[in-house]
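Tutorial sheet, problem 5. The two components below are modelled jointly, 661 residues in total.
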Amino acid sequence: MPSVWIDYDRCDGCGLCAKKCPYDAVEMRDGIPHILEQCTCCALCLEACKRGALQTDLTARTVPDFSAWKGVWVFAEHQQNALQAISLELLGKARELAEQRSETVSALLLGDQGDPLVQPLFTAGAHRVYQVQDPRLRHYTTDAYTKSLARLVEKYKPEILLIGATDIGRDLAPRLARRVGAGLTADCTELSIDPEEGILLQTRPAFGGNVMATIVNRFSRPQMATVRPGVMEKRAPEPLQGELVAEQLEGGDQDSRVEILESWTEEGERIDLSKARVIVAAGRGAASSEGLELLEQLARSLGGELAGTRAMIEEQWLPDDRQIGQTGQTVRPELYIGCGVSGAVQHRAGMAASRYIIAVNKDPRAPLLSVADWSIVGDLFQVVPELISILSRRI
Amino acid sequence: MKIIVLIKQVPDTTEIKLDPKTGNLLREGVPSIINPDDRHALEAALRLKEAHGGRVAVLSMGPQQAIDAVSEALGMGADEGVLLSDSAFAGSDTWATSFTLSRAIRKMDGFDLILCGRQAIDGDTAQVGPQLAEILDLPQVTAVCGISSFEPGASGRSQVLRRVRGGYQRLNCTLPALFTVVSEINTPRCPHMERLLRACKTKTAIKHWNCADLGLKTQEVGLAESLTQVITTFPPKTRRKSEILEGDPRSVAGQLVDRLQDNKLI
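Model answer (structure tokens):
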């Protein structure tokens, strides 16, 4: 196995290698770096070192010739004859990426809904729509959709393929990526093109820690990424026209391994947190009926909605339509108040764009404090009742 | 009847702390747990075993200390465990992880069902389940929140409930298959003390496989086999005032309301 080592004669103990390592595999001891067992030989430290003190016997992987792969594709998701907002958001981003690559944007429309969704895709930024019309594609099924899309990818060779990180997208994207032999990055919060190498830079929260990571798919095409709804912004619609390419679903009816027997929607309205002006978020520190009662009252007095972290939904203190974060909803309210929320990076990915952020937490080391405008280090069970009482007098 | 459950040991991200001065992650004292969704997958497997007989095997890939997660799974009632551990696996993305897991499953002689959590709380990708299903050419159902019937065997099938945005789907799926589950499916049991102690003490029910045991070369696993690479990491952007309000509860509450009013938030 290759390894990375340090030429201590050249090392000046600057510590840049330790800072750069995404795996915490370089430890500084008495001003000298040491490479730990968890080193993956990613070689990022080699680039960081200004003195060439880091060395490796790793042979650089050769990047295959991908010049035949062109254009940015977006999987167009729709439900009940309406395009999902995520598809329009992705088309906006795709347009930006395609311009930097001097390429075009194509949308992939599968189903049996006819043509009414084609024009809206052009309006949202697609230069071209690949349409596969077939009754077998009326409802999303993993096998039929994967097969159909894999055929398009192999036939037309897109350079980039973006898919919404929805229930459907998260079922489809990994399966499709594996089938076409492509790397896939989930839940990206930023996408851009590297100006030198021309590849897609995919940024997302990483390592369950306090960092964002930029990831690339250097060794396969298409470069695939999923993006959660609400993260990218739609572009203003333009009265554009484009090219419609009709494609067939080929092959027999072998796709009956999974059969949908019935689908139904839940009783009662699901809450759309993305529309709330004020959100009061409950974390583990508020995990009790009294805690939630207090926060509900606070939310009400501010005309806002109560939401929660993954743990609060996991432990069933709140229904899952109130989850904020990478797994839940992405929100950007005017005012976000996190009470007893530690602020893991996955949670912050879903709320960091809020206009004002307030953290109430007993622990001064809670990561949410580092992104808050105003923080209160204190017990929410003492602070929130005071807040409610002052608000009731002043509003 | 045999079910393989995939589990991952993860840091408990709800316990993550920062150094208030430097903003750096404090790694010490962050407990390692079985990934929450995976624990629900194991519980689902144990219930199927109780109803239909058979065996439950857990499979995990990770550093040596992931043995604790496998032992805990045995304590909950799994019959056997396999831990894939090798320094060559380090840096695996989901492409390399699903490939390595598929080789281990091929070595585990047969199964009716593979269960795993929908996603891990550290990586949060929800990719390994579907990618593994693709390699093994299995039908998949993701976000399963109920298993209403389960008939293993030749031409076996299972009826499951799937959580989709705003509602549910009821599906029929042929077996063998791979399901990823969400927490709604059940409430996991606690490990049985005696079983847990036995698992930790004897460890005979746990197999350790490395790269060579899977018949793989080091350049076929880990970062070398991964299609995606991290090229840089950086702290999340903050352009905030980060003001800490001081005083007793009444005073801080008052200061906060002042600021809300000054900024026309109320």
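Marking note: The mean pLDDT of chain B is 91. Full credit if you identified this.
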